[in-house]
Amino acid sequence: MSSTLLVLEQNLAKAPGMGYASGTSTSGTTSTLVDSSPDSPFFTNDSDKLYQNAWVKIESDADTTNTGNVRRIRTYTPTSQTLTIQGTFSAAVDDDDQYGIYLRVPPVRSGLHAGLLEYINDTIRNLYYRTYHLLTLVTDGDMETSGITNWTGVNTETLAKSTTAAYIALGKQSLHVDCTAASGYAKSAAIDVADGDSYDLLAECKVLSGTSRLQLYDETNATAIDADTTTDRDWRWLLVHATIPSGCHSVTARLVGDEITADAYWDNVCLRPSYATRMDLPSWVVNASAVEDLIVWSGGMERVGGGWATVERLGTVVPRWEVLEDSIGQTARRIEFDTLLGETDLLLLKAIRPYTELSADTDATDANADLVKAGALARIGTDLQDRALLARWLPEYAKLLAMHQPRLTRRMRL
Question: What is the mean predicted confidence (pLDDT) over 296-320?
Answer without folding.
Answer: 72
